[in-house]
Fold:
Amino acid sequence: MRNQERLRQKLGVYFVVGSQDCDFSIEKTLLISEEALRGGTSSLQLRDKGSKLTDVERMELGKALQRLCTQYDALFFVNDDVDMAIRLQADGIHVGQDDMTLADVRALVGESMYIGISAGNVEEALAAQAGGADCLGVGAMFATNSKADAGEPIGPAGLQEIREAVGAELPIVGIGGITLDNASQIIRAGADGVAVISAISRAGSPREAASSFVRIVSAV
Structure:
């Protein structure tokens, strides 16, 4: 069965990455991901959207990332692709509001896999909670160019409203436009962690960026 306490502990710094974030290079994606994991990233999500990879290449990338997550004791999530998540027996799957329904995902992946759901308002968050979501990806926190479907920013105040609505038990990560300068605001608003894309993938040193996020999240 799913260990909710382990999930909460591992959501502190949640790196979302795909080849589109790494110059469409599998090698660079793996290099940056390992550096992030070395820096303390405790969850990693493969979100390969609009990339140039074939299905076979994407699966091989998923396998390689999963091995790295195992090596560094991090959770491995797959974005949207339920078939890949099942084939890899990933730790979790994350789906958006326009993807497969939570009930259908649970029926396919079984009871052992975590399911994360995107939520941009209180209504979506409560529906996800009622449906048995294991965690929420709440946002967009701030304006972002990394995720075209992120929606209008709701800011820390919006996240705080969602936290108050769902209570303390449901793990939440904030996502969207999060940087070293604003990450502490997200944790203070009630998030258990921050989901980061370009602030790590485009950093001069992904390892140092990840370490800095870990320090910020731990200090709040």
Summary: The two ends are 30 Å apart (CA to CA). The chain is about 45% helix and 15% strand. The chain has one domain: 4-219. The first helix runs from residue 4 to 10.
